[in-house]
Amino acid sequence: MLIVAGLVIGVVLGVPPTLRTKMTAMPQLVTLFNGVGGGTVALIAYAEFLDSDGFTAFQHGESPTMHIVIASLFAAIIGSIPSGDR
Known about the structure:
0% strand
């Protein structure tokens, strides 16, 4: 159900700017969409870090487990790196 809701929200927000954009401005629009996707990945990595058992231990004064910190950091970094033709 959440996937369908995400698809509907994405279509509602993504289709109108796509239909209004001229073909000469399409690369800038694609770059904008890629940037939003990268930001989303960083937010998801942060949310997963907060939801993990390691963060619960961190709240109680312990250090979060290293594999959770490394996985969250790599997910945020790799997801935020722009990919393109150039």
